[in-house]
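Our platform keeps sequence and structure together, in a single record for each protein. Such a record has a labelled line for the sequence and another for the backbone structure tokens. The tokens are whole numbers drawn from a learned vocabulary of local backbone shapes. The remainder of this section carries one protein's record, kept here as part of the documentation:
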Amino acid sequence: MMQTGQPVWGFFYLGRGEKSKAGRRSNYWRAWVIANDGPPRRRQMLSARVFKGKNSEVRIEDVTRRFDQSEHPEGAIYSTVKHIFRRTYP
């Protein structure tokens, strides 16, 4: 089912401890580049402010299995953003 205009929030794992890290292979880095319309400059901080006021086209899927591939019970199934295609606004 395709819906538009629904607000969706994303959560990214950035490591443990006080210093978070978003490497070039991370989902956060990829989403940041899409929201920024380009890669960061050398030593640029990847601030979350780049996402404010931006809309993106995404694919959302239900998560029906746990990390160990066992099935979630019906009430534990949840949805997550699986792919960010492109920024749509502004």
